[in-house]
Amino acid sequence: MSEIVNARVAMDGSPRASARRIAIIVNPVAGKYRRSRIGAIAQILRRDGRHVEIAESAGPGCIREIARAIPADMVLAAGGDGTINEAVAGLLDRASPRPAFGVIPQGTANVLGHELGLPRGAQDLANVFLAGHTRKLHPGLANGRPFVLMASAGLDAEVVSSVNLSLKKKLGGLAYIVAAARTLNREAKDIEATIGDTRILGKLFIVSKAKRYGGNYLLDPDADIFNPGFTLVAVSDIRPFALCKIGLALMAGRLDNVSGIRKMRVKAVYLRSRDAVATEIDGDVLGVTPLIVSEGCEALDILTPQA
After folding, report:
1. What is the DSSP letter of 95?
2. What are 271-281's pLDDT values in tens digits?
3. 20 to 30 Å CA-CA from 107: which of 43, 58, 116, 284?
4. Superfamily for 10-132?
């Protein structure tokens, strides 16, 4: 970690003093990882005397530690949703003022990249970072752990916990389909959601801050990662035929038209089950129920394209 940077950053969308240091945190085992793309972005950022440090993760938990401790005025995370989650957690461990945060979309899926409307090209991404336009990102908390996109209990968390990592590296998103096929053979367990005085029974619950799910599929067009609150999606039937209907509706952006699905806006939710049910956040394993989802108290300045 020897090289460091100089770039322009903004807070709340307005310019502020030029940053002196940029750090790019990389997950080298993320799906679709391209070292050449990272190098191209770093080379662009180094122009005009800027200094850029590239730090690679050495294993689980390493990204969070790098983000927490690395001396930088701007931190860019290159990887999938799990990589972004770790980087966000590390930045939230820091005292204010925190570095501006940017995303270099890679990985099997990068929902946050879609949410932010980030370009794919190295030059265009670098331009976003150098322009320094930021918005406030409000992470949620799942059993006290920060998340940016979503937390869930039930089928999709079971799939995440059972996916073969080597197969994921080779097949990308297809590895999740293989894991889902195996998971469907198991008996679905009942989950109860408590929202204030309201209780809902279901087989799968998704608590989302994002509009999208599983890539660029529209879950809730009214969701907004830049505002507090969540969309709770409750699914009562996860038998194969019902899941096919849900999948087709999700791809068409018409989830509201499917029976057996309930959506509502919530500020907090408590998920529990008689038997342990898998839970996940931002596409990574969290643990098992119970799951308490609430708003976090901290916000990050995230670099976004100009509106």
Report:
1. P
2. 999 999 999 99
3. 43
4. Probable inorganic polyphosphate/atp-NAD kinase; domain 1 (3.40.50.10330)
